[in-house]
Amino acid sequence: DTGVSQNPRHKITKRGQNVTFRCDPISEHNRLYWYRQTLGQGPEFLTYFQNEAQLEKSRLLSDRFSAERPKGSFSTLEIQRTEQGDSAMYLCASEEGTNEKLFFGSGTQLSVL
Amino acid sequence: AQSVTQPDIHITVSEGASLELRCNYSYGATPYLFWYVQSPGQGLQLLLKYFSGDTLVQGIKGFEAEFKRSQSSFNLRKPSVHWSDAAEYFCAVVWYTGGFKTIFGAGTRLFVKA
Q1: How many CB pairs under 8 A join A and B?
Q2: How many CB atoms lie under 10 A from the CB of residue A13?
Q3: Is B49 near chain A, with CB under 8 Å?
Q4: What is the tens place of the pLDDT at every residue in A39-80?
């Protein structure tokens, strides 16, 4: 499968715990994006990488959120001290160059109890 | 600030009927425009995109969209809806503000009745 892969598909955690999600983009795509989607809303931009550099981070993202893309390939999104309001679908997307066409993974559904 | 509006939260059409989903955007510069579809349990799939040129663009699955600059709109259409078209549809707009950023509308849920 050469699409965008996200793991895990589902994550249930207790409030206050840390969680980490992984995204493997399409190989050779140098841009990688993270979005968050809640029920009834469109995907909300969180952050994006150009290769290993994190170029932009949404002001909506609190300090509990951190993302990395250490070798310019896969990326991880960590949420520390999770809150119930963090429950959402976290989507990863990759893009080749400036094609502006995003390829999305199936997402990681986070439920914080 | 940039914004994307999809005024219809949900739409119900009969199978075989025509469909139009509305999308409007704010901000002065002409952006890049996209429509994505999301089926339950699936990631978002690109239907079509507009960058420049002919304002009527054709996409996959028989969808088309028309860019109207004067109305800041990019409405999605299909002449005859199939039951498999039932899904959530998102309009997305890309602006260049020092870097490319994609902003999505809230989505329109399409229901298809037999």
Answers
A1: 56
A2: 16
A3: yes
A4: 777 888 899 898 898 888 887 778 999 999 998 899 999 999
